[in-house]
Amino acid sequence: MVVFTIVFGNLAKLPSEGNAPYPILVFAAMLPWQFFANALAECSNSLIVNSNLISKVYFPRLIVPASAVIVSFVDFLISGMILLALMAWYNFVPNWRIVTLPLFILIAFAAAMGAGLWLAALNVKYRDFRYIVPFIVQFGLHISPVGFSRNIVPQKCCWLYSLNPMVGVIDGFRWAILGGESKIYWPGFSI
Fold this sequence. Notes:
- The chain is an all-alpha fold.
- 68% of the residues lie in helices and 0% in strands.
- The protein has 9 helices and no strands.
- It has helices at 2-11, 22-49, 51-56, 63-89, 101-125, 133-142, 158-161, 165-178, 186-190.
- Keywords: Cell membrane, Membrane, Transmembrane, Transmembrane helix, Transport.
């Protein structure tokens, strides 16, 4: 968060959304991104890591990747406490939109579970695929609006940009937490 705030907020002078301080803008986007990235990485490796258990005991196989996503969700909740502390530090109070946050958390959970199941299946079939997953996650960080506002993306490119499933989730988090000027690109959110 500190690097994004210094590079994008101080050096590049990118605008914040509304009256929100730039660190809160960044952390409100890093929170769902970190949840998605951790859940995706853990879920994609979960079947390989637990292969001994899967081969010895019969149980629904979906439990293993789901448990990896749930563990990442616990990390997400702990990081949410840090966001609350950051909001208290800057005396930032969210408006009524904060009650919609569970909807966006559910969408992030579904996106992490869906993509994680795909990658877990690829990881089982092609064992070396697990080495590609960190590159996918790192690339996803740079094409998601984590360190910057989505408003700097040109309007003609928004539909292409919103093909990233985390753009809608991050926009939703910012809309729910920051309120004010923060907007959701609805065509991209529906994808």
